[in-house]
Each structure stands twice: as C-alpha cells, then as structure tokens.
Amino acid sequence: MSEDLLARITESIVGGEPESVVALTRKALESGLQPLEIINQGLVAGMNIAGERFTRGEFFLPHLLIAAKGMQGAMELLEPELGARQQVHEAVGTVVIGTVLGDIHEIGKSLVGTMLSANGFKVYDLGVDVPKEDFVARVKETGADLLGLSALLTTTMIGQREVIEAIVQAGIRDQVKVIVGGAPVSQAWADEIGADAYAANAMDAVEVARRVLM
Amino acid sequence: MSKKSSSVPEYFHVDFEPIGRRVENNAGKTLLAAAQTAGVQLVSLCGGVGSCNSCRVRLVSGELSTPTREEQDALGADDLAKGYRLACQAIPLTDVKIDIPPESLTAPQRLQIEGQETFIEPDPVVTAFDVQLAPPTLDDLRSDVARIRQVLDDLGIACPVIRLPVLEGLSGRLRAQSWTARLVLRGDEVIAGLPQDSDLLGLAVDVGTTKLAAYLVDLEKGNTLAKTGRMNPQISYGEDVVSRIAYTINNEEGRKLFQAKLVEAINDMLAELHNQTSTSSEQVVEAVVVGNTAMHHLFAGLPVRQLGEAPYVPAVADPMDIPASEIGLALAPGAYVHLPPNIAGYVGADHVAMLLATDVWDSARTVLALDIGTNTEISLATGGRLLSCSCASGPAFEGAHIHDGMRAAPGAIERVQIVDGEVRVHTIGSQPAVGICGSGILDAIAEMVAAGVIDSRGKLQKDNPLVREEDGVVEFLLMPAESAGHERDVIVTQKDVSEVQLAKGAIRAGIEILLEAAGVAHDAIEEFIVAGAFGTYLDIRSAVRVGMFPTLPVDRFRQVGNAAGTGARQMLISAERRQATAEIVRRVEYIELTTHPNFTNEFIKAMSF
To answer: Is B567 helix (H, G, I), strand (E, B) or coil?
Structure first.
C-alpha cells in the first residue's frame, strides 16, 4: 500500500499532474509514511526520471516545469513535517542561487533550484534582481560551496561578471565555485568572466554542480 | 432540417467543415454557389466550369448529384471513390456535410481583417491659408517675413514663429510663386509655404522590431493615398529588442547608427510613396511614428540601456514633437514628427495606437485586445478600467526556434488539417512546402492535439502512426520529402511542440492575470481583439484549441490587422484622437508579469493542452 503510494507519487510527477502529487503526498503523510521517504522514494525518484528524459531529449522545459511544480507543491506540505520531526535532509553541498541585478526572470533559476534540491543539495534561493553585495553576504553566511548566477538578458549578463568581481574583492573567491547560466550565456562567456563552469539547463546544472565539487 | 413543402424541397442545408459554416442552398444550386452564399472563399481558378480541380471538396454525409463528366476527368476514380467532388459541379440532393481541404480555401478564416477603418473627421494639427503677398518695391522694403506677418495678422493670426529650416527656402519660393503661397501653420508656427492649392500630406509610420509600415495620408480629406513596407534595417544587429539594446551598450555609436538606419529606411519608403502618388516631400507637413518603447527610443535617438535592465523604465513616456529636420527625415523642412506616449518599458506607443484604433480604451464593454509578437502586449478594458501587461512569448510564431520554421513567405505551410489520419497542408502561394510559418505551426499543434498525436502535456505519442522515431528523435511528419519543395521532410519535433507550449502558455498566463486582476470571468469578455501580422493570419479556432485564447464563441473574436498603423493614421488626421492618447496612458494600470506572484503558476497551467 505505502509502496504503491510512493510509486503513484513518482508517476504523477513524471506524468505532469501537480495536483495529484500534492494530494498523494498528503495521503502518504496521513498513512504514516516518513517525510524523508516520501521525498526520496516518491518525489526525487520522479524528478530524476523527468530529468533523465529531459537529458535524453524526450522531455522539454514545459514537462520539467510541470514536474517541478508538483515537487514544489509537495515540499510545501513536507517541510513543516520535516521540521516538526527534526529530520534533516542530508545535503551533498550548499548552493546559493539567484538572478543577477537588473534581471527579474524567475522561472529558469527556480527550476535549477528545484533540481538541485531534488538531487540532495541544500539550496538558498535569493530570488531575482539580486545585488552583488547580497550574493557575497549570503555566501559568507551559509558557507556555500557553490554560487549559481542566472541572467536571461544579453543586457544583464554583465551582472554575472560583477558578482564574480565582488566575491574576489571580498576575498572568498577560492571558497566557492561559481556556475553561470541563462539563455544568452555560453561556455565562452563563463570562461571570459572567470566562472568555474557553465550550465546549459537545469539538469546540466546538477551534473555540473556535482563535477565542480569533486 | 430542410423545409419540405411538397415532394420537391425548396432548399437543402449545406454544412461546410472544418470552418463550421451552415447555409441554406436553393435546390438545384451547386456547392460552389452555396459556398459563395455562405461567404466561404473557395478557390475557383477556372471560374466554375469544372476544368481546374481547384474547388475540390469531400462529401462527408448526405447525397450529391451524380459526378459529371468533368468531375470524372478532373478527379479520377480513386478520388471520386473517396468522396471528393468539384464544388462547381456537384449539386446537393439532400442536406449535406462537406469537408473543405485546406488547399481549396483561398484564405484561412479571417474575421474582419479589414475592419476598424472607422471614419475619423479630419481635424489635423496643421492648417493652411492660401495667401497673396504684396511684392517688395523700392518704396516697400519690408522683409519677406514681415510680409508674411502682415498677411497672417490680417487673418487674425498674430506673431507667428518661423524657424530657420523654413526660412531657408521661403524667400526663393515666394518669388518663384509670384508672391502667392499656401502657408501651413502648426499652432503659431509657420511650417511651410507651399504653392497655392497644394494638398497637405501626412506620413504615418509603424516601426516594428521586424517590419516597418508607412502610410501617406491626405491630411484634409483623411484618406490614405498609398502605403508600403520594409524590413527594419536594424535587424542585422539583432533579431529582438533586447539584443539591439545590448548592441547599443557594447557599441557607443550604436544608438546613433540605429536612428540613422531607421531614418534612411523611412526616407526610402517616402520616396516610393511619392513615386506612387506623384507628390513631393515638401507637401508632407506632419508625421506620426509609433513603435514599441525601444523602437520609439531608437527612432528619437534616446538612450535604451535602462530598457534592458529591471525595472525596465522608459526614458520618456510623454508624447513628443520632434522637428523632422533635426533627425534628417525628408519631410517639409518645417514639419514635425509626433511620437505618441508610451505606457511602460515593454508596452509602447504602438500599443497605445492599437487601443486608440480599436476604441478599446473608450469601450463601455469588457474587451480584451492583444498584439502577438516576440513580446505580446495585452490590454483589458472593463468597467471603466484599463489594464495592460506585456509577456515574453518568444519568436516561435515568427517561425524562429522551430525545426522547420520560417517567416510567412511563399512555400511556408500556413494551414494544416489532419483528417482521418491524413495530413493536409496549404502553403502560401500554393508553392511546394519548404517550412512552416507561425499560423501553420499553431494549426499543426492544434490538429495534433485533436488527433491525439500529442497528449495534454504536449508529449508526442510514439504509438501514433503519424509519429516516428529517427535516431532517437521523436517527430511528426508534416510533409514527406517527395512532396516538399526542398526534398527534405518537413517535420514537427517534440521541441517544436515545447516552443509553442511556452509561447502560448505565456500569452494565456498574461490574459489570465489581467482577468484575475480585474475580477472578470472568461465568459464576460464581450469582444476579443487580435491585432498584428501574425494575429491577422492565425486561425482563431486553432488558438482556442491549443488554449492560447480562452474558449469563447467565435463571433466574439475580431482580427483587426495592423491596428497600430491605423491608430497612427488617426492621430495624423485628428488632433482630438491625438489628445485621446493622453487619456489612454493616464488610465492604464500596468501590471508587471515577471514578478507577479501568480505568473509562474498560470504559466505552467497554461502550457498544457
């Protein structure tokens, strides 16, 4: 019964039915399943399948976004439960992400956050239009291993360079790896501004994050 | 049901599918006659004598007259057996249902494209007076300007201003015209001294990111004398607005270059318009230029950097009057160019012009109006409120980012039908297919959804016979190589489906957020206005079927073509219309979608089918 519920959660994530994901998660909690079980064997399993399909070219951004919406909805239910049971999600790394100053594009950056969370990273999402000072302060405060910078406009990608300059000035450049991404961003741009890596999409971001931390 | 007064019915019902028109057809009249009665534009190249095969239709149900000799020759036994007939030959014997293949329709169902050429009482900002001046003599040594002042003073116009560009030509002209002139005034300023009885002309320009449209207008009569179009020459520096802004950030001379390129292209169009109408540039005493905020700024030579960074504010939103001579526009030397106000960084004067032309702003009804492009501007008028937003719908409907995408040009598939598992397409100019344009990809996706080729999440169904997998890539075959114009298959890929999902999702999310902000339900939309080039050619039913537009009765939709250009022309001939734009801008409540708390949710919801 409980295994069946977890499998159905996974299926609903992959099948793109965010409402059922949330309903099934609620049911799973009521039936006594542990939040961590639901996350790892239900939600994350589903996100991983969706992610693999994305990598194989069978899924595209809309499918991944719909899957992530289910995951996010379920996490809203589960996070208070995790807190109440004092359970912690063991993290493989800590990431600060945000969209740079002057840019208010949210969706791609949040999807990266969700995929990293689903893959065991502790994610601090600073939102959009984030000043460089905030990135520096949060990296220091959280001791983050990774900094993810998103820019969706050719006019704002310069902000990624400015954040990197700011973390150099703050003297924390060698404590944190910087990954850049966004529609106009490329490997060449990442090289030019001295980022550690470029991630082409949300799934790639997970791969790249694992790679730069090795 | 047809009326049966006796054994011989007076008429039969003819249902035309897939366009959904039903018409009563007098007994004995052909299907072509029925189509003409119904306003269904069937192709009839031979004029209805059964020799050309262009009015091919298919009988779905009911009974038609026995195939004529012409039909047997034109169609052959195979097609006849499948129910194909020539509309010009076949006569209904009962109520019938007829299916029209796309190639037999002259135009996609376009709803009132021409509409909205409402008559505006000419009331231009310039006025003209035919005058006779006293020539100078040795006894009368007053300056030329003093003479003009005198004659205007006699007409009750005191202290006119005459700027240098006008003065430069005036003295020679007065002498050449034997001291007669048609003085053109704009406020208290003399802007031209034309030969007497000259027609006063105006120029309206719609500066699109991709295309320019120019109209030469008779200012006193209000009619359009000629129109022409060009590609925006800035396009070689970046396809979209943001990449052009980036260009000006990275290249100091970029801003001036873009202005010069635009002015040059407009001057080019002017020369063509003058050629067409045998008029001259000095007659053009006023211009109105509309464009999105970035195009507006680049035309005026204003900085655009701030449009490329949140919170995306315009340098100026107020209306402006720029002397044409200052920017090198080849109008009358004293002419001004009027730039209407902008609403926001991504809702510009072109949208204001569209709201003006369609009277959305002034409507007592609940009206939604949108112009689909790389950025789609949407406005909702309801209960005295006017709400606007802009959404990043991307270039999919301009054929970009689509595997076989292309602009609407000959050979582009513009209409698609899937009937009984058979794909039918129609191309622009009936040329062999080389790609798909915006209306074609929209149709294709709508038909694929209806035929179950893609599911509600947008996934191509591998087990569908129309879907194939080649080298791990799942795709839908629209037109096999042997029928295509470039000997390559024309396909729709899973990625193409996704691109359309993103585009239509963004547009629908914008619509939903405006409705929600105004507290208006879908049903309450009394009129749904679709403007712009793609909006002119898209099939409304497809847009509804993919969920880009809400489900409304089809007669609530109105396709108005280039309403921004129409609005610009209205502002050219009417000072009152020009003033109305101030009211529009004052009333608009602009909603920023990118940071709207419900946007992501609505967007994701709207991506499904």
So the answer is: helix
Residue with tokens 């208006």: B520
- Find, among B324, B288, B298, the residue nearest to B234 by Cα: B298
Query: For B416-442, what is each residue's pLDDT tens digit?
Result: 999 888 899 998 888 888 889 999 999
Strands across the sheet containing A177-181? A121-125, A93-99, A146-150, A177-181, A197-198
Cβ separation of B474 and A66 shorter than 8 Å?
no
Domains and their CATH numbers in chain B: 11-104 (3.10.20.30), 126-194 (3.10.20.880), 201-339 (3.30.420.480), 349-395+501-606 (3.30.420), 396-494 (no CATH)
Higher pLDDT: B240 or B7? It is: B240
Distance of CA B130 to the CA centre of its chain: 39
pLDDT at B35 over 50: yes
Residues 6+ apart with CB under 8 A from B273: B203, B214, B216, B225, B226, B227, B228, B279
Helix (H) / strand (E) element for B38: namely helix B31-38
Whether the CB of B310 is below 8 Å from some CB of chain A: the reply is yes
From B334's Cα to the closest Cα of chain A, the distance in A is 38
Contacts of A60 in chain B (CB under 8 A): 458, 494-495, 497-498, 501
CA triple B292-B293-B295, angle to 5 deg: 65
Domain map (residue ranges) of chain A: 2-84, 93-213
- Selection from B330, B385, B389 nearest residue B362 by Cα: B385
pLDDT surpasses 90 at B146: yes
- Residues of chain A with Cβ-Cβ distance to B311 below 8 Å are 104
Chain A contact set for B243 (CB, 8 A)? 154
What confidence score (pLDDT) does residue B411 get?
83
Alpha helices by DSSP H, listed for B177-253, are 241-250
User: Is the CB of residue A114 less than 8 Å from the CB of residue A158?
Assistant: no
Q: Which residues of chain A carry a pLDDT beneath 70? A: 1, 88-89
Among candidate residues B39, B188, B200, B27, the one with its CA nearest the CA of residue B105: B39
Residue B5: band (very low, low, confident or very high) from pLDDT cuts 50, 70, 90: very low
A183 reaches B (C-beta below 8 A): no
Q: Do the chains contact at A61 and B498, CB–CB below 8 Å?
A: yes
- Residue B210's identity, in one-letter code, is T
**One-letter amino acid for residue B545 of the chain:** R
Model pLDDT for residues B291-306, shown as the tens digit of each residue: 999 999 999 999 999 9
Q: Which residue of A has its CA nearest to B501?
A: A62
CA nearest to B597 within chain A: A106
pLDDT band at B513 (very low <50, low <70, confident <90, very high): very high
Cβ contacts of B251 on chain A, cutoff 8 Å:
none
Q: According to the model, what pLDDT value does residue A169 have?
A: 97
Q: For domain A2-84, give its CATH number from 1.25.10.10, 1.20.1090.10, 1.10.1240.10, 1.10.10.10.
A: 1.10.1240.10
Point out the residue among B242, B457, B474 whose CB comes nearest to the CB of A155: B242
Residue B61, SS3 per DSSP = strand
pLDDT in tens, A174-190: 999 999 999 889 999 99
What pLDDT band is residue B52 in, cutting at 50, 70 and 90? Answer: low
140-169 of A, contacting B, C-beta below 8 A: 153-156
Q: What are B376's two structure tokens? A: 């789609």
Instruction: Please name the helix (run of DSSP H) or strand (run of DSSP E) that holds residue B166, with its range, or none.
Output: helix B164-176
Write out the DSSP string of B268-321.
HHHHHHHHHHT--GGGEEEEEEEE-HHHHHHHHT---GGGSSTT---S--S-EE
User: Cβ separation of A62 and B501 shorter than 8 Å?
Assistant: yes
CATH of domain A93-213: 3.40.50.280
